[in-house]
Amino acid sequence: MQDAPSNGGRRLPNRARVVRDRREEAASVLQPSDVVRHVPKCSPSVAVSPELIISPVTAVGEGQPALRWLGVWIDRKLSFKRHVSERASKALKVARHIKGLAGVKFGPPAASLRKAVITCVQSSLLYGSEIWYGGRLKPSAAAGYNRNQLVSTKLGPLIDKVNKIIVLAARGVLPAWRTAPTASVLRDAGLPSGGTALEHARIRFALRLRTLDAAHPLVRRLEAPPLPWQRATKLRCVDALVPRAPRPILAQSHFSPGCRTDPTEGRTKEAAAEHFNAWWSQLGRDTITVFSDGTEQYKDGAKLVGYGYAVYRGQTLARTGSGAINSISHVFDAEAIGALKGLQCALDILQPTDERIWMCIDSTSVIWCMRANASNTSQWAFLECHTLIDRYKVGIKWSPGHMGIEGNEAADELANTGANEGRTDDDRSAEPTISGIGTTAKALADIATSDWWSQCHPGLSASYRRWKLGYSVTEPPELRLPRTVLHRLLATRTAHGDFAQYHRRFGHTEAELTCLCGFEKAPDHLVFCEISQRKFHAWPARPERPPSRPEEGRRYLSALLAHPELFENFLAVTQYFAINARAQRTRDQTIPGGSHMSYGSPRQNRHSLTAT
């Protein structure tokens, strides 16, 4: 038997021949059209059931084909570009309408327009953002050492589109010139940027997930354990933003005697305390009273929340108790849990000869929830109290706190002791509460707002940064000023107004650069001008003497801008802008050539901060 060659010289040609024959056979059987993948140009229909088949809504023209479901446009690649475009186009129409309603000198109050932006523009623009926005970063889908590493979600173009609409609406709110910086416009209007608004909506969605019923479909998806190889989904990433808390249930309405009566009965705290002491001193030993209280305090930067209760038989102290609850909660939760613990302790010493049990609570909010429906936060404590109150006919009475009532003072000391000791019970009082995670969500929203402001603040001008303004998404008090006065305030703050430096920067050759007094117009000149200082005796919150140095003018002007009503009063008293406007109109009528003709030689403004 002859050995085969070591290099397989005879076998290689045989293998190549077999492969070639099979390739030719396949080519003769298959047509070119059979191996080409055809991508359909339309989205397929969705068969929910044999009776319900949803046909997609195709796009018109060059739009991306997508399926509209409950107002959300779902495209085949789940990029949601079509959805963002649809929502942006709707919000853009409203934003342009709001911008056309008002100008610098006319239009509705800025505060009213801000409400319209929040109600109409933001709500329409952010509809369905929980579907497509999961943050700027997401866990990586790659395996190996890159597993669960954060990568970009590539949502920058969509976020920029949202931001442009909000900025346009914010410019319609404020009577500011179009050259005002975007960051200052959003800050002065009290509106969030596009990225901040999306982050706020994401945090609200996370809080909503924590308060859903246990039978909700989203809760079932979240409670299902993830597979080992499965990366965190967008829903799980949002759910992890806030801590877990006991979910509220849909409980039956509870109405007990006095559920529609004001716990204070129209009395002041002093009168109510006197009436309570007179009532409590007449109780016999067959009556049990339970005093409870809660506390919320900070020690070395740590938050401490605790409760305490004191049980009396007649006027004799029978039992006491105290404890701490989870720090992600509030004093309202401590009051409710303390009332439950005190009632349970009173039932332990209850005797057949006892007539009645009274719960003496100093929080009217807790009394409302005890008599009527339970609140979502600490709902389990209120529901257990409802059961015990109805079963044992327990009475509830308001005992004003810190008014010298013996039981209240004892419960208050016990609550402080329980909070400082930090001893928690092995029950649901050791878990966070809904009000506590709500505060956590608000803190996350504030962090997102402050992060955006810290990024934009260095890019603003030095004249704006000198005011050291903060930023919050709330209504600034100056928005309630008349639009003309508000324009003067914003121009003074941003230096984008009828000022000499501003006109030189943008090449306004026909602008009048000097004030009636001869000095150049500047943002802070109104406190140094002779027109204003003639009325120094009537200045609101005036200093000891008229400002003569830049730091004195800055200090007084900062006080005016911090209190918009003082700034409005200052303009009304001095008539600084009104006198200059009348002089400008007189010059335009008397001097040939109009306002580009300068009168007199401009004087050097020694007091202006911008001139220095």
Automatic annotation (TrEMBL):
Cite the RNase H type-1 domain residue spans from the record.
291-420
The annotated region (Disordered) lies at 588-612
Tell me the superkingdom of the source: Eukaryota
Q: Please name the GO terms that the record assigns under molecular function.
A: nucleic acid binding; RNA-DNA hybrid ribonuclease activity
Give the matching InterPro entries: RNaseH-like_sf, RNaseH_domain, RNaseH_sf
Q: Which spans does this entry mark as compositional bias, Polar residues? A: 601-612
Instruction: Provide an example Pfam family for this protein.
Output: RNase_H
User: What is this protein's record name?
Assistant: RNase H type-1 domain-containing protein
